[in-house]
Design goal:
mainly alpha; 3 helices
Length: 78
Amino acid sequence: MKTLKNMEAIFTVAVAIACGASYVSFMQPSAARTADVAQASAIPVVVVSAKRMTEQEKKISLMEERQALLGNATASTL
């Protein structure tokens, strides 16, 4: 019976230490959190300054792409 009381006391102390350690760890800023904040302020911006393709240019581009794919498919089967 005395052993069970000791185990209960050891368990209670271990839980108290674990709770205290987790509370302290949440209160301290970690390096990962400060790095995330630093990266969040420097958001890269991409500017595209190209003209849109016309409908005719799109069709020609698709036809050329299909011909290239068909050419590669026949070469790989040989």
